[in-house]
Amino acid sequence: MDISRFITCGSVDDGKSTLIGRMLYECGAIYENELKDITDEEINFANLVDGLEDERKQGITIDVAYRYFNYENKKFIIADCPGHEQYTANMVTAASNAQIAIILIDATKGLSMQTKRHSYICALLGIKEIIVAVNKIDLINYDENVFNKIKDDYLKEIANKQSNYYFIPISAKLGDNIVNNSKNTAYFKDLALLQRLKSIEVKNSDDEFYFSVQYVNKVDDKRFYLGQVLSGSLEKNEELVVLPSKQKVNIKDIIYDFKNVSRAKALEQIAISTNKEVDISRGNILCKNEDKLFLSKKVLADVICFSDIDIKNEVLLKLANQTINAKITKVNYKIDICTLKQSHCDSVKLNDILCCEISLDKELLCKEYKKNNKLGAFILIDKYSNKTIACGMILEQLKQDIEEKRQYTKEEKALNKFIRENYPEWGCISI
Q1: What's this model's pTM, rounded to 2 decimal places?
Q2: What does the alpha-carbon distance between residue 406 and residue 382 come to, in Å, rounded to a whole number?
């Protein structure tokens, strides 16, 4: 059965939790302990998703809630993202695994700051399929002009050429255009929401096989390498290259779900053994084609900040199972969410979105995010508090400056000093 992962996002009170509750209800995916909530005359769909007590009291989503349902032979995994700006990190975490985004807009309010922020983050994370659901359409008497105005504003101010957009007028509370087209919006001739979700065929960004070693275990004198298939698929007896050592091995066993299987595919957590003993450790990448990965000590990346950051401090960069000392060496610009324009950046604050250069103290195995979202995405961690302070997407590998690579000897430095002191007319610079 095909599986699609999608998120709902947008500003607080736009009706994200209510929409998910409605979809679960229509698809018969309500848990038994929640049935008591739907015996009331008016169902509170949001309570089917907002599981935390604080969420129910405040009527907002705080943490990401994941739910599952089937619709006409297709399986969906939903992540309900918080709408408040202070929970942007939660929204980014959920969006990083999504293939489709439903961006809700309150029909009575139009575009908001969070509409722009979440839309921009979805674009950064490479989500190509965007459903813009104009919710609470019943509160404006299903007005076609208002729906078209919001659609035009979104296309003019937010949409980009890399994504596909589908605009649907809905009422999550009353069920308009959720399963079938509503008689109240006769002007809307496109697919209803669930039909649209079912129709979208999602393609992975990269079908190349990559396996990230998380843990090495020895059982009965045989070494097993545990980790996740980041992308692509693997079969027994196939030859793989271990990076960065470039040793070659053949796969002997593939263990998945406590069973010895002949094949593994993307996102599965597996254990493998090889035909010979070689040095394989945590952080190593196993692949079929080493030429499509690059080793880099400096990268250009888009970064979303989860807290204020002092860029003078060293941080830890974690990508797959690699953890390396890193430092933001240059902030090229930050994005102004109001105008979506680039602007100068003097300091790095919570929720800032930056384009910056990051230097590493040893080489990182990685790939451009647009080619592989598992080997192109990373997080930055504060070395002292161990707190995740940002996430990023690699845009490209940067060559290090020659001066940055060169390490001068004591003799070279002494000669440089001698020349500068005795022959100043030569214009020799200090090293």
Answers
A1: 0.78
A2: 28
